[in-house]
Design a protein that fits this description.
The protein is mostly helical and 218 residues long. Helices cover 57% and strands 6% of the residues. A three-stranded antiparallel β-sheet has the order 1-2-3, with helices on one face. Strand 2 and strand 3 form a beta hairpin. Helix 2 crosses helix 4, helix 3 runs antiparallel to helix 4 and helix 8 runs antiparallel to helix 9.
């Protein structure tokens, strides 16, 4: 099948990308520019071009194909990820962007996944909060981690009052009581531990004072 519009795909050399680095992309060479696309799409297009199974009459026709293909391939990526565990919307957007998907397909993918109730930040936040509270996290750390995932803790219904059994002090005391008071400065060690778990400095100091001084009086 003759091509009315010259298109060539360049695939990256095989090899694993460094940790945290953007994933390798394919390059679609047009007469007037080069477009970067996800590697999986590049491989698909390269195979079709080599087989003569596809051709394009113009740049607009090619771009339309690339957009449509990214929407489907990217949605498949999201479904595979969500089959393993839940994700917040921002996490999925960042994953797709790291893979090389364009902004417009990412918006369409997330909108489709949201309509299908595959992506629901409120559901994700509820499960995340309950899990981390059971693990002994304080409210501060939970809120920081939710913010990193694009979720505003202040907008969550019932947070924090309806989630916490007992006060922050009581939960911090229960958590710290499981630890042995060792080292030259157990007070500072407990404070660092509790602050690292997301409890406020005032709660951490109060708990450390009760446990350390209580142990010294025994």
């Amino acid at each position: 099948m003759p091509q009315a519009y010259a298109v060539r795909v360049e695939l990256p050399a095989s090899g694993r990308a460094a940790m945290g680095a953007p994933k390798p992309r394919a390059r679609v060479q047009l007469p007037e520019e080069t477009l970067s696309v996800p590697l999986v799409l590049g491989k698909q297009l390269h195979k079709l071009l080599e087989a003569g199974s596809v051709s394009f009459g113009s740049r607009a026709e090619l771009v339309h194909y690339l957009l449509q293909a990214q929407e489907q391939l990217g949605f498949d990526v999201v479904v595979r990820l969500l089959d393993k565990r839940d994700y917040a919307e921002r996490q999925l957007r960042e994953r797709l962007a790291r893979d090389g998907y364009w902004d417009k397909p990412i918006d369409a993918i997330i909108a489709r996944a949201t309509r299908a109730r595959l992506v629901d930040d409120a559901r994700f936040a509820d499960a995340f909060i309950r899990s981390k509270l059971r693990s002994g996290w304080g409210a501060g750390r939970i809120e920081r981690e939710l913010s990193l995932r694009g979720i505003d803790p202040s907008a969550l219904p019932g947070w924090p009052e309806e989630y916490q059994e007992g006060s922050e002090y009581e939960r911090a005391l229960e958590l710290a009581s499981r630890r042995r008071l060792t080292g030259k400065d157990p007070y500072a060690k407990l404070v660092r531990f509790l602050c690292g778990r997301g409890f406020s400095p005032s709660v951490a100091h109060a708990v450390a004072q009760q446990l350390v001084h209580g142990a010294q009086e025994e």
